[in-house]
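Help needed: design a sequence for this.
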């Protein structure tokens, strides 16, 4: 596969999607290929190149998990030990959960923790400690180990384990355990370091269709373990190659035993009806696509999206970073990954076909579902289902900063089977899959989207649910 062919596809796809800048890296047949297109910012444009840094969002979680696995290899952390062994100050609304959650529960999202805290605990070295103190008010969505539900708060807590065990700040611990040994010199936390390098900024599309710079570049420091790293496509392809290897850096230094690195890619809990994967390994999403096992992770920043996908059995990796919101950047990343899988490996990743519209089932599913910061509304007009996502007004009012735009209602279809799995078929979340959760009586009480549980709070036509 020639560089020009990849570059031509990336350029055409970015132009069609209206994405200002994108960087793509592919590892195939024992060599690296890069394709970079566009600019870092529509206001202050610089060409995107292989060393341009984009915010990675949740791809950062793979770095946090790997740093913890280095401590596991050294005998300083036990995956099956309770988190309180390393974070004795942890308090949760459920004391039994606080005492029982293990390190592995954090790394495979089975701790029973809600998505996150809406809180900015400052930029000081105590940011994570203050965040963990605030978890006393974080809702629980289930018992530890009972089910997987994606949790940013859980990975922030994992970052606090790194701090307490190493005696360093989270950022310094990750730099010493992972970034420096692997030579990831264009991977940093925070604008103070990023501003000395070439970096991309996020963009959002307003209601008028105009693309504008997102003036908030990154989230709060306490969210660094779950989503705060900025990195280049060259660094991320090197990162992917490390995870395709045997635990040694390019210079031969062993960072992890091969068995522990492989353990991260083995299923620890199954996922249902998720476009993100069929199972969690240790942090990684595992998904079977057209007969091959893929191992990867995606991430969303503020107006930026990243995707890292590997196929270990084929020694293949693809990394995509783009700097536009979900109505364009997320869709572009997905298209590039699918194109690379098909053109380099002959692997076709196709969406399942939804069932014809069923008004009775549509009425059963329609309503409002929420987490701390967002509300998902599933609605029907009698002919089709739609799904929209809104950041809660009180969250916008309290933030004091620019937040991403809401996602307009997009078409949704139920999938074959028991009818509780669904797929979004249009808009910025096109291709995203999820499922509905029922109680013992068979009533729908939640909807999973992007790997996290949204609790149902209102049924069709705004009728309050009796949740007692």
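Sure. Designed sequence:
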């Amino acid at each position: 596969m020639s560089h020009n062919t990849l570059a031509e596809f990336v350029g055409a796809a970015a132009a069609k999607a209206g994405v200002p800048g994108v960087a793509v890296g592919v590892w195939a047949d024992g060599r690296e290929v890069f394709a970079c297109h566009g600019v870092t910012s529509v206001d202050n444009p610089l060409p995107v190149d292989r060393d341009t840094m984009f915010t990675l969002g949740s791809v950062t979680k793979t770095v946090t998990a790997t740093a913890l696995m280095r401590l596991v290899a050294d005998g300083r952390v036990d995956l099956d030990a309770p988190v309180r062994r390393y974070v004795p100050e942890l308090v949760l609304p459920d004391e039994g959960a606080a005492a029982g959650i293990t390190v592995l529960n954090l790394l495979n999202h089975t701790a029973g923790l809600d998505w996150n805290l809406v809180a900015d605990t400052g930029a000081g070295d105590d940011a994570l400690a203050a965040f963990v103190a605030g978890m006393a008010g974080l809702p629980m969505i289930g018992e530890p180990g009972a089910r997987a539900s994606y949790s940013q708060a859980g990975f922030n807590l994992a970052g606090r384990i790194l701090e307490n065990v190493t005696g360093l700040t989270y950022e310094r611990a990750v730099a010493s355990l992972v970034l420096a040994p692997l030579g990831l010199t264009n991977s940093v936390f925070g604008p103070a370091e990023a501003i000395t390098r070439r970096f991309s900024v996020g963009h959002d599309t307003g209601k008028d269709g105009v693309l504008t710079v997102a003036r908030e570049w990154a989230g709060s420091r306490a969210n660094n373990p779950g989503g705060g790293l900025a990195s280049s496509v060259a660094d991320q392809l090197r990162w992917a190659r490390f995870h395709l290897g045997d635990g040694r850096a390019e210079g031969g230094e062993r960072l992890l035993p091969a068995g522990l690195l492989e353990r991260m890619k083995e299923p620890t809990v199954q996922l249902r009806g998720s476009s993100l994967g069929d199972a969690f390994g240790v942090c990684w999403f595992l998904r079977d696509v057209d007969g091959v096992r893929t191992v990867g992770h995606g991430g969303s920043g503020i107006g930026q999206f990243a995707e890292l996908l590997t196929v270990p059995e084929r020694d293949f990796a693809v990394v995509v970073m783009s700097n536009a919101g979900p109505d364009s950047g997320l869709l572009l990343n997905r298209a590039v990954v699918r194109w690379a899988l098909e053109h380099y490996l002959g692997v076709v990743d196709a969406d399942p076909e939804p069932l014809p519209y069923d008004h009775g089932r549509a009425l059963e599913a329609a309503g409002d579902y929420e987490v701390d910061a967002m509300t998902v509304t599933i609605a029907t007009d009698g002919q089709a289902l739609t799904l929209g996502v809104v950041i809660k007004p009180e969250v916008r009012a309290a933030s004091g900063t620019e937040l991403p735009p809401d996602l307009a209602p997009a078409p949704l279809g139920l999938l074959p089977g028991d009818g509780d799995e669904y797929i979004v078929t249009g808009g910025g979340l096109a291709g995203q899959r999820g499922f509905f959760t029922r109680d013992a009586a068979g009533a729908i009480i939640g909807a999973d989207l992007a790997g996290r549980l949204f609790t149902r709070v209102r049924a069709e036509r705004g009728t309050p649910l009796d949740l007692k």
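The CA atoms of residues 23 and 275 lie 23 Å apart.
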